[in-house]
Write a structure and sequence with these properties.
about 55 residues; mainly alpha
């Protein structure tokens, strides 16, 4: 938990969420927009947690 693999996964979630959100907004689809926003939020929380738990 909090290792380099977790950080990569969190960044991948944010990278996948950005175009998904844009696509959902362009198509005016609330479901796809929400899914993209959830991916972005989950990835951002994971990244913030990983940065706060850095070991010396």
């Amino acid at each position: 938990m909090g290792g380099p693999g977790a950080r990569v996964l969190a960044l991948a979630q944010m990278a996948a969420g950005l175009p998904l959100t844009a696509w959902g907004m362009r198509r005016r689809s609330g479901g796809w927009t929400t899914a993209g926003l959830l991916l972005i939020a989950h990835g951002a929380l994971g990244t913030a947690y990983g940065l706060s738990r850095r070991r010396p």
